[in-house]
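Note to self: keep these together.
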Amino acid sequence: MKNEKVTIQTLLEMKAKGEKITMFPAYDYPMASLLDRANADIIIIGDSLAMVILGHDHTISVTMEEMIHHCKPVVKACKRAMVVGDMPFGSYQISEEQAVQNAIRFMKEGGVEAIKLEGGGGVAGVTKAIVKAGVPVIGHIGLTPQTVFQIGGYKVQGKSASIAKNIIEDALALEEAGAFAIVMECIPAPVSRIITQRLKIPTIGIGAGIDCDGQTLITYDILGLFDRFIPKFVKRYANLSPTIVEALQNCIKEIQEGKFPETKHSFTMNEDELKILKETFLKE
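Structure:
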């Protein structure tokens, strides 16, 4: 399975077998290529692009044009992983027609194989319309960063029984609408366990405990490349920022001291040809 192209059927079979699904974001060719070689199952061009790459304070600012632009190199890099585009804020909230048009743009212009959108029962109709149009959909419930101002910040969702019940109903509504998987962000582990047991489709957690069918984290977080803040649910598997800074400092120092480039980094030319140039341009 490691070398086979990941499809929706692959993910459903993984859930049935109890095999964990992995999903990570990429925004360019080099990172997507590395993730694909590492056998990530899903690579998503997340709207986290806004914060991680474009430097915004939240995900709301990123546009469809920016998202599609970054989809293209990721798609080119991926041989095995399923590639998913993340519908940005404002691309599916106005009407079902708008949502379908933008989902189709992701596939036609961006080249992705599926899209993800945030929201529960409130976007079930939109989800159903997009699926009907032939675009596979991953849902996203719990903490939905695109509504961060509405929900009062980046907070765990579903700590009370009443809100947890709403989240479970959101998951069931999205499954009924045709989503083939659901991301669950920042919800208590017991709640995600109930949802995972109830759904026939895979659940992918981020800050949602161990019992999800899969896990996702921001690639730049786990590699130590984004250090503006570190969410509680992140585990760093490397801390590359200091290594990169040190390498850059060494390069800058050698350039400033005249130690780089060395002869082995330079190109030469035929001595006779060089003599002609010198006689022409370096006459005293």
